Amino acid sequence: MAREAGVSTATVSRALAAPASVSEELRRRVLETVERLGYTPNAAARNLRGGRSQMILVVVPRRANPPFFAEVLRGIDTVLSAAGYSVIMGNLDQEGAKERHVVEMMAAGHIDGAIILSGKVPVSGERSMLDTGLPMVSICAAAEGTHAILTDEGETIVEAARHLVGLGHRDLFYVAGPDGNANERIRWAALQQLFAELALGDVRVRRTEGNFQFSGGVTAAEAFLALAERPTGVVCCNDEMAIGFMKTVQAAGVRVPADVSVVGFDGIEFADFCEPTLTTVCQPRYELGATGARLMLDLIKKPGPSAPTTTLLANEFKVRDSTAPPRQPRPGEAPAKAAPGDAKPALVPLTIS
Amino acid sequence: MAREAGVSTATVSRALAAPASVSEELRRRVLETVERLGYTPNAAARNLRGGRSQMILVVVPRRANPPFFAEVLRGIDTVLSAAGYSVIMGNLDQEGAKERHVVEMMAAGHIDGAIILSGKVPVSGERSMLDTGLPMVSICAAAEGTHAILTDEGETIVEAARHLVGLGHRDLFYVAGPDGNANERIRWAALQQLFAELALGDVRVRRTEGNFQFSGGVTAAEAFLALAERPTGVVCCNDEMAIGFMKTVQAAGVRVPADVSVVGFDGIEFADFCEPTLTTVCQPRYELGATGARLMLDLIKKPGPSAPTTTLLANEFKVRDSTAPPRQPRPGEAPAKAAPGDAKPALVPLTIS
DNA sequence: CTGTTAGCGCTTTCAA
DNA sequence: TTGAAAGCGCTAACAG
């Protein structure tokens, strides 16, 4: 290739990388030859020489909800692409084989940095991704030792719950995320604090666990339907479960919001097209990804260890059609409220089934 | 590293790659040292030397619907990961900058093969991905010159339309995909053929174009609502548009399926949780991805050019609650059917607005 | 401003 | 069975 243009390989390299350092004459000749031969520098050689690969690993949790994560990924990809980086997908699988794989890629120098959406730094045996010293950013859920981009999820789920209480609901149902999930922990802790602050004896809360999928909402709805005294307000830890819940209770003749109010969390697009439209907390999904990617680029620019930082983005609570004041009990019907005698044991976070 | 174990670098390489060719004694010593030092071979050097990178590029169309594509991607990733390959995301953006980028990656030897979900081989100026001679597989939509994994989408959308006709619908509405989209072309062509075969003068079809998003369904519904004589059966080119359509006409007081029947295409999960549940054609999304990935691995195994092949997977038409026989016109109401005088101009594929 | 050269870390002949 | 050495394609340091 260099021979073809009648120059040295170094000149070719310079003409491509630092056009200013080459004479007008040669530069033109090189570029013309490059064009004519359709030459593209070999990435592996460049990577080997320069120690960087222009690839960012994105670690996605095992059963990531596409409607939520796809938009975060779009934010990441848009920003990284514009800077000339490519994204390698690291979907974690069940057996942990993939987890080992991504740690190895990282150690093999195949990657310039990692963005973690799974809430924890991948580990393989003794080795952690952190050992590589490469820049790492976590999004949506803080992974220890990394820079985190988070939302005010605790505050906003409390806002959603307050919305229900404000409408007059006193008997609540919380459809939780999977046990141990970082977001679930934060949201439940925030809710517990809210309930502790509310006038004791006034609000009752029951809780069941879900899987963040539609099916989790279905299961929660079945538990709900089986209750003798049904709660009138339901807080779901994400929109899929809220929608699965609504669909299932409706099939059993329970009206939303007339008989039960439901709020979700995430603000996926489907929340505007289910029946009824879902009152929910909208997370800035694209911006979460874009912000994380920008931080990654910064970290790559100025290398060296830096103390983990936290960036907080704001969610937005949106009231739609799935919430309303509780129905007044008709004469002869059991009241939704707990009987006066039950007033003392206010906070009753039973785990159902 | 080799010095540490007291052997040559060649021995280390052999111990890792071909354990059989190294004496028991040395092998153990090498492996132990590898473990102790946490050594991982440098990927770039290996790639440079071997000419392969263990990376597969997946080209995703610009506005890919997450509920559909995420599952295809999962199929791809699962199969490729198990074989030790990683996936690089090539989301195409608006300006075509990304298209150039992916072509360059391919030419730069950064990639061992490409899976194309966008229906066309990316091109940058004069250069096409095909020029690299690397294995290429297209999924969901055939890209010229590649091995394609497709479904019987024409047959199954016809099945969906026949379902409506079989229920008694004679005035149909087709909500198309974006103009020029490969899937849209195939489906519309199949529908046109069906209508040509049906007794002429009996079925009327009008058509409007959509964008494969919820918003496309909303727009189509507005066009529908504006019609003086509303069709009674609606075929949508994908589920998102069908759901957007249903929600919008319902808001205007049109009942589904009592006043209008709706069928979708794809079989995304939402189709089971919208109101009413959506009659639709379910595509084997995971299997599409997995099959394509397996073919890719085969192609990599036995290199050299091969004549493009086509693999067809079967869709499944599922009847749910969004379709029913057309309502009998009440006395004094205009019939849904075209008046007898209109019988001759049977197929009326008007494009609406 | 341009050419020569060394070497990134690995695998793979080729000899021993 | 093992070691020595060449070289994958590039870029950066050094001469000229």
UniProtKB/TrEMBL annotation, chains A, B:
Residues 1-50 form the HTH lacI-type domain. GO terms for molecular function: DNA-binding transcription factor activity; transcription cis-regulatory region binding. Residues 316-353 are annotated as: Disordered. It comes from Aureimonas glaciei. The keyword DNA-binding applies. This is DNA-binding transcriptional regulator CytR. InterPro entries: HTH_LacI (IPR000843), LacI/GalR-like_sensor (IPR046335), Lambda_DNA-bd_dom_sf (IPR010982), Peripla_BP_I (IPR028082). The keyword Transcription applies. Residues 331-346 have a biased composition (Low complexity). The lineage of its organism: Bacteria, Pseudomonadati, Pseudomonadota, Alphaproteobacteria, Hyphomicrobiales. Keywords: DNA-binding, Transcription, Transcription regulation. SMART domains: HTH_LACI.
